[in-house]
């Protein structure tokens, strides 16, 4: 009897759609000015680093997470001024919470709907969990195509509709009147709307308080853009009865004790992280002004810590930046609307200086 090869076993055992898909790609970044992943470029001041290290050293790593995560949830609720009648649950990053929503809504024939281009994990999570995914293209100006959204909602009756607020990778906030129409239409079809506010520290608007008067709306956030990308901590907020059901599919002990304690420490020093966010918001406006002066470059409006730009030849510009030690995200291939587009993370002032100089030389 012939022993099957490993490739034969993979083809026989693993799902065909998994074999055909691409894994989430992370660019190697060693030696580069890293402006490709919307990270906060700042570390804590040395005195806070020492304080955090001592505090983490006291965490009981021999025990499963318990009181620390419960305390973190309560402190987050106070930090965001969670509306009355609402609650929150924690995730290992917002990616896990997106997956939990897919699991909770995985009924036969269920559909997930989102504007495109958008965050890739909405579609990936839906498909991996056996839900259909429907993407509705944005307009050429990266606004919601309200008529197309309403038609898709009427046709597909989605269980989950995601609206990134601001959107990734386009960085803009959609028009609130358009969102209100989408929220109402999904509500009439008995579905849920997830307002993904991953970039909230840099945004001028939020749905956190409006959520209280729309019980089918959930607000999803992460501490990654707050300044804790390495901690992997997300949280989902909505009406208490709804969060109680979603929480049933949360894996036990999904947030580690070190992660929870680091997040609690960060909330106690939220003023330092807000100072950092203020610097990045100011740098964003400086970058926008400089990019507007570059011939052939279109910089789109941003309410996040990134700027979407269109250049005459994005492949050439990306390689030119990379050759000069600057790593950004080349996203032209993600969607037809993103032709010749790069996504630039807003970095520290000196990083932005280097990026602007390298971009000028690379065009």
Based on CA atoms alone, the radius of gyration comes out at 21 Å
Please tell me the total number of domains. Answer: 2
Main beta sheet: strand number and arrangement?
7 strands, mixed
Mean pLDDT: 95
From the helix content, strand content and strand pairing, which structural class follows?
alpha/beta
Describe this structure in words.
With 363 residues, the protein is of the alpha/beta class. The protein folds into two domains: 6-46 and 274-362, Aspartate Aminotransferase, domain 1 (Alpha-Beta Complex), CATH 3.90.1150.10; 64-268, Aspartate Aminotransferase, domain 2 (3-Layer(aba) Sandwich), CATH 3.40.640. The protein is 42% helix and 16% strand. It is built from 14 helices and 13 strands. The chain has helices at 6-13, 16-20, 46-57, 67-79, 93-104, 120-128, 146-156, 176-188, 224-228, 240-246, 257-268, 270-292, 314-323, 349-362; strands at residues 33-34, 86-91, 111-116, 132-137, 160-164, 192-196, 217-222, 234-239, 298-299, 306-310, 326-327, 329-330, 341-345. The longest helix is centred in the C-terminal third of the chain and has 23 residues, at 270-292. The chain is globular and about 55 Å long.
Which structural traits does this protein have?
single chain, 363 residues, alpha/beta, Aspartate Aminotransferase, domain 1, Aspartate Aminotransferase, domain 2, 2 domains, seven-stranded mixed β-sheet, four-stranded antiparallel β-sheet, 13 strands
């Amino acid at each position: 009897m012939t022993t099957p090869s490993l490739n034969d076993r993979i083809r026989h055992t693993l799902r065909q759609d998994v074999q055909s898909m691409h894994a989430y790609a992370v660019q190697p970044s060693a030696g580069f000015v890293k402006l490709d992943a919307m990270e906060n470029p700042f570390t804590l001041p040395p005195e806070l680093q020492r304080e955090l290290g001592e505090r983490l050293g006291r965490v009981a790593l021999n025990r499963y997470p318990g009181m620390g995560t419960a305390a973190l949830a309560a402190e987050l609720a106070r930090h965001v001024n969670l509306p009355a009648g609402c609650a929150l649950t924690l995730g290992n990053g917002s990616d896990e919470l997106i997956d939990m929503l897919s699991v909770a809504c995985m009924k036969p024939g269920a559909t997930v709907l989102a504007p495109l281009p958008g965050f890739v994990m909405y579609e990936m999570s839906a498909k991996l969990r056996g839900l259909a995914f429907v993407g509705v293209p944005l307009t050429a100006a990266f606004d919601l195509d309200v008529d197309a959204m309403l038609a898709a909602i009427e046709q597909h009756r989605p269980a989950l509709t995601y609206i990134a607020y601001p959107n990734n990778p386009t960085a803009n906030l959609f028009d609130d009147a358009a969102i209100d129409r989408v929220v109402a239409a999904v509500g009439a079809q008995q579905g849920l709307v997830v307002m993904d506010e991953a970039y909230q520290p840099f945004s001028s608007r939020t749905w956190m308080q409006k959520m209280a008067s729309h019980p089918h709306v959930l607000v999803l956030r992460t501490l990654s853009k707050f300044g804790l990308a390495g901690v992997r901590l997300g949280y989902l907020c909505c009406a208490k009865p709804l969060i109680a059901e979603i929480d049933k599919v949360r894996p036990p002990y999904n947030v580690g004790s070190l992660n929870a304690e680091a997040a609690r420490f960060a909330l106690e020093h939220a003023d330092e992280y807000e100072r950092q966010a203020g610097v990045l918001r100011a740098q964003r406006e400086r970058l926008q002004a400089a990019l507007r002066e570059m011939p052939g470059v279109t910089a789109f409006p941003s309410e996040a810590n990134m700027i979407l730009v269109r250049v005459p030849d994005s492949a050439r510009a990306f390689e030119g930046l990379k050759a000069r030690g600057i790593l950004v995200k080349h996203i032209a291939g993600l969607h037809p609307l993103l032709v010749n587009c790069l996504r630039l993370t807003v970095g520290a002032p000196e990083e932005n200086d280097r990026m602007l100089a390298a971009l000028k030389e690379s065009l």
